[in-house]
Amino acid sequence: MTVAAARRAWPADLPVLLVAVVWGSSYLAAKGVTTSQTVLAVLVLRFAVVLPVLAATGWRRLRAMSRAQIRGAGVLGLILAAIFVLETYGVVHTSATNAGLIISLTMIFTPIAESRIRGTRLSPPFLAAAGLSVLGVVLLTQGAGFSEPSIGDLLMLGAAVARTVHVLAMSRMRSVEGADAMSLTTVQLGASVLVFGLLCAAPGTGATPWVAAADFGAADWAWLLYLSVFCTLFAFFVQMWAVRRTSPSRVSLLLGTEPVWAAVAGIALAGDRPGWLGLVGVLLILAGTTWGRTAADATEAPAAPAAPAAPVVDGTPAAPDRDGTPDPPVVDGTPDPDATHPGLESAGRP
Q1: Which helix (H) or strand (E) holds 313?
Q2: Most buried one in 9, 245, 301, 318, CB count within 10 A?
Q3: Are the CB atoms for 227 and 46 separated by under 8 Å?
Q4: Strand, coil or helix: what is 340?
């Protein structure tokens, strides 16, 4: 890109960069509003704000979905619900810094799983990047001295694995092929909220949404609205706007800075103190995931020289489709509504 073209792209780049900052701070926001007794209630309340807007915006295309597409999206919604639950419980039991960085391992897990399914070999640079990232996670979780990782760290690791399962299922379910991506996202989120509601009704699963809402103070509502309005709706509409005005690859690259902002928010605002070993781990994770993204893209480039942008969720590019082309862009679980392929890595945002 020439200097002049880069200058013209910056007006679109800045809002996208703001989305990455918002996403990075979402782990801190989740910790601010959620306790171990209100995880499910907060998830219901958060997406009760989002779903009506998405449904109203894409109502015509939502009605055009076939029964098979609705069933397929519902199955994907069950996986999505697992991602949300693991992430949100995880962020309650670990630091915002650890949560944002550990979940970024999806960038490493997805190409590894894809290569196993396809029977292809990963490049040596990617394997080195993966090793660097894993070492970084070990140091990050042991920053205060070597001990067992916290339950929150393990839950976030499980969420990263669940995200990988979601993107692989999304790219291979023939029942959802050809469906409008925004409609698929709406159905998936609807299925997820149904799961959260049923779990809330079960005994011993914590507060119900109305009980939690009644106990919320002004700060709690502010955090909840921040997660709903900014981390979901704002992020979706900004990417939808920006991808038409700049390179989709630039959008993906800018959103990929999310782990950096998660670390900044956790350390600067939440007072996280990972220790010197943890700080080394932070640097290794950021370096490893960035290097791994580049190595994975370089491996896929010959198969799809004219492909659109890699999909992004939480700054994480998803696995390519069966034909070798990446899926359409995704923001917080919401793909570009103009995209016709149902590419959705995960909506997993705490």
Answers
A1: strand 312-313
A2: 318
A3: yes
A4: coil
- Torsion sign, CA atoms 96, 100, 101, 103: positive
Beta bridge partners, 316, equal 313
Q: What is the pLDDT of residues 218-273, one digit of tens each?
A: 999 999 999 999 998 888 778 777 767 776 667 777 787 888 899 889 989 988 88
Burial class (CB in 10 A: 0-12, 13-18, 19+), 130: buried
- Dmax (CA) of the chain: 61
Instruction: Return the amino acid letter for 120.
Output: T
DSSP per position, 276-299: HHHHHHHHHHHHHHHHHHHHHHHH
pTM for this prediction: 0.79
Taking the CA of residue 62 as centre, how many other CA atoms within 13 Å lie in the half-sphere pointing to its CB? Answer: 17
End-to-end CA distance of the chain: 35
